[in-house]
Design goal:
By secondary structure, the chain is mostly helical. The chain has helices at about 25-30, 40-65, 70-75, 80-95, 100-110, 110-130, 135-145, 150-165, 165-195, 200-220, 240-245, 250, 255-290, 295-300, 300-330, 345-365, 370-395, 400-465. It is about 75% helix and about 0% strand. It holds the Pfam family MFS_1.
Length: about 475
């Protein structure tokens, strides 16, 4: 990922935001100003990329690592697996709304300080979960830890968008997403190994060690690349501080049709991801007489490897699409161009692999091999489409990058929480085949939404701004 000339600068790019002559000091205090960080040495960029990706691995690891250990945890705390699944859904909801807390803290104390503080909180909550003496403490520590969740993804993507040029940004985001997609996949696998040979609490002591390592790496390598946008010696007004915690700063981004549709698409796709991960043990164990959590945990390697390959390959294809369209437009780049790279996976690979996965399980044909292979290709298709959407959310409104990314993750984790809480009851009511066929309809609908954004994304945004006389910076 060597530094290359920014092709978008060769010809004026259509402005996402109309220029402003001036902004008040309070506006500047609320909004980090752009900084030219493309010149950071490549080795330093790679280190930063590793650290921010590692932290997404640590936080997403916690969301699924206990899935193979659910019966053991339920027995120890005298509860049911269904209650623990609802608790997991609550953790995902907390993750989705974490940026409402940490975003304003970032504006108040700086991105680096907020980032390290969030790691410290997750580290403490991981230790608290491991040492929980009852169900209430277990739930409280998990949800408190969840409130740091998507901040690592929002901050990480924002940092990468600041330091990587658009023509290599998709590749950087693809490598970054290796952490966030590995966590939900390898978490159950490692959790299954641990619960087979030791107590489930070791899972959270491992997470404690992972977050502690992340804190050390962050302190050493992640710089504060934001330029100071105000005089830090001048105290902020109370109303300015309060306004930082106003959730409308994130919700108002949904008024732009292209932003809303991109967020909705991520939500629809995450439904399949978490439905697959949550239901795997309850589906495979009775069908194939798997008694050990270790064996059922190994299943997660299949979609997990698919997630990894899909993320990296999707990033490469995303950047290739950007370069292709820059040439077509004689140097002009639009954020929506990179979404063209995910259309084939949304209309072909993901629906096809999902149908094979669910109906071979429903009809009990093909043994374990066919659904495992199908889960791999479904993982490739899912993340192949996700990559472009993630990078698009960081580019579509550069002045409000963090708010748009936060909105995306909020929707994404609300859908994920619903899938995690509902998938097993739905499978019990209508079966594996029809449950995941619903996910196929979501994938195809996502494909049509992405197709619409690729054709008319910037036009939607411009039309809406003109129609309602909107100033996108306010």
């Amino acid at each position: 990922m060597e530094s290359k000339p920014d092709l978008e600068s060769q010809k004026p790019t259509p402005q996402v935001d109309p220029p402003h002559d001036s902004e008040s000091e309070d506006d500047l205090a609320l909004k980090p100003q752009p900084s030219d960080a493309y010149g950071i040495p490549t080795w330093r960029k790679c280190l930063i990329l590793f650290v921010v990706s590692w932290m997404t691995l640590a936080v997403t690891f916690s969301s699924t690592s206990l899935l193979p250990a659910t019966p053991e945890i339920a027995t120890e705390f005298s509860t049911t697996s269904e209650i623990l699944n609802v608790t997991n859904a609550g953790v995902l909801i907390a993750m989705g709304f974490s940026s409402f807390i940490w975003g304003p803290i970032t504006n108040l104390f700086g991105r680096r300080n907020a980032y390290n503080a969030a790691i410290l909180v997750l580290c403490a909550c991981s230790a608290g979960t491991a040492a929980a003496i009852n169900l209430h403490m277990f739930i409280a520590m998990r949800i408190l830890g969840g409130f740091t969740g998507t901040f690592f993804m929002v901050a990480g993507q924002t940092i990468l968008a600041d330091i990587f040029e658009p023509t290599v940004r998709g590749t950087a985001v693809g490598c970054f997403m290796v952490g966030s997609v590995s966590g939900p996949a390898i978490g159950p696998c490692i959790g299954g190994i641990i619960v087979t040979f030791a107590q489930w609490r070791i899972i959270y002591w491992l997470q404690f060690a992972m977050t502690l390592l992340g804190l050390l790496l962050s302190l050493l390598f992640v710089p504060s690349i934001q330029e100071k946008s105000r005089d830090t010696n001048k105290p902020l007004k109370l109303c300015t501080v309060i306004s930082m915690f106003n959730p409308m700063r994130i919700f108002r981004r949904f008024v732009y049709p292209n932003v809303f549709l991109a967020c909705l698409t991520c939500g629809l796709l995450s439904t399949f991801q978490y439905a697959l991960l949550t239901s795997a043990r309850s589906i495979f164990n009775p069908r194939f007489n798997l008694m050990s959590p270790l064996v059922s945990g190994l299943f997660y390697l299949s979609p997990g490897i698919g997630f990894l390959i899909g993320s990296v390959v999707g990033g490469k294809l995303s950047d290739r699409a950007v370069k292709k369209w820059i040439v077509k437009r004689n140097g002009v780049r639009l954020p929506q161009d990179r979404l063209n790279s995910g259309l084939a996976t949304l209309f072909g690979i993901l629906p096809g692999a999902t149908l094979i996965y669910c109906w071979t399980l429903e009809e009990e044909v093909g043994g374990m091999v066919v659904p495992i292979i199908a889960a791999f290709f479904a993982g490739v298709g899912l993340l192949g489409a996700f990559n472009g959407l993630n990078t698009y959310s960081a580019e579509v409104m550069p002045h409000a990058r963090s708010e748009v990314i936060s909105a995306k993750y909020m929707v994404q984790y609300i859908f994920a929480a619903a899938a995690m809480a509902a998938v097993e009851p739905v499978i019990g009511a209508i079966g594996v085949g029809w449950t995941f066929t619903i996910c196929v309809f979501f994938a195809i609908a996502s494909g049509f939404i992405v197709l619409a954004i690729t054709k008319w994304g910037i036009d939607m945004q411009r039309w809406f701004e003109r129609k309602f006389s909107l100033d996108p910076k306010n």
